[in-house]
Amino acid sequence: MTSAHDPVTHRSDDSIPMTRSRTIRRVVLAEAAVLIGATAIAGRHPRAALAAIAAGSMAGWATFRPGSPIYGPVPSHGPTDAPFAALTFDDGPGPSTPAILDALRDEGVRATFFILGRQAARHPEMVRRIRDEGHQIGSHGYDHGILVWRGPGYVRRQIDRTADAITAAAGPGALSPIFRAPHGFRGPTTWAAVRSAGYRLMGWSKGVFDSANPGADVVVQRSTAALTRGCILLLHDADGWAPDAPRDDTAAAIPGICAAARDQGLELVTLNELGV
Ligand SMILES: [Zn+2]
C-alpha cells in the first residue's frame, strides 16, 4: 500500500471521477466508430469487418457485464451445494448505514460492505462499527470513479487511498483484500491492476436495483426472488454519486430479506464464509 503522501495521489486526472453516463457515452461512441469503420471496409475486406464488429461487441460485453470473464475472472456466485447466501452493500458508509447495521444486528446476520475510501474518511466511526459487529469489509475504490478508460496507475491509486482510509478508521486487518469495481464496469487493464495490488475482484449474482429507491416492499420482493444457494445479493447502504443520500428503502427491507432467506432455509453469511 502506498502512503497518503504519494505524490501521484492527487494528479489532476484523478480529481474528476468518470461517471456512469460519461462512460456509457464513450463506449457507445467507440462502438459506433468501430461500426462505421467496419462498414467502410466491408466491401473489400468482409472478414476483417466482421472481426472488427465481433471484437467491438465483445469489448462492450466485457465492460458492462459484471460477471463476464473476458477481462479476467470475477466470482459472482458461491457454492450451490450448501445452504448459504450473502448480502453485500456498496457505496457506504453513509446516512443509512447505522439503520442497516441495526437491522442486521437484530436479525443476527453478518454481511459484506464494499466501502468507498471517501466515505470511510467521512464516517470512520461507522467503519469501526461495521468491523466491530463482525461484518466483512471490502474495497469499492476511493470516489466511485469508473475504471473502464483508466490505466493501472489510476486503479492502484483508488485501491491504495481506500486502504489508507479504512486502515486509518478501523486499523490494520479491517479490510479484506477484495475489490468490487464501481457498477462492476471494467476495462482491459482493471483485473491485472487489482491483482497486482494484492486484491481479488468480486462481482455479484443479482442486483435488486434498490439504488432506484423503489420502496422497501419491492426490494424485499426482488430479493426474495433472487435468493438461492450461493447467491451474492447486491444492495446499497449509500449512494456512490450522492454521499449524503439515504437508503431508507434498503434499511427498511432488511427484516423482510432476512425472513425470506430463513423461509428458504438459507443462512446469510459474509463472502469469506460463503467461500468465494
Ligand atoms: Zn457503487
Please describe what this structure looks like.
This protein is of the alpha/beta class and 276 residues long. The protein has 2 domains: 16-64; 84-274, TIM Barrel. Helices cover 45% and strands 11% of the residues. It has helices at residues 20-41, 46-64, 97-107, 117-122, 124-132, 152-170, 190-196, 216-226, 248-263, 271-274; strands at 84-90, 112-115, 136-139, 178-179, 200-201, 206-207, 232-236, 267-269. Strands 1, 2, 3, 6, 7 and 8 form a 6-stranded parallel β-sheet that branches. The chain has a two-stranded parallel ribbon with strand order 4-5. Helix 6 packs across helix 7 and helix 8 runs parallel beside helix 9. The longest helix is centred in the first third of the chain and has 22 residues, at 20-41. The radius of gyration is 20 Å and the shape is globular. The two termini are 23 Å apart. Residues 1-12 have low confidence and may be disordered. Residues 90-91, 140, 144, 182, 240 line the site of zinc ion.
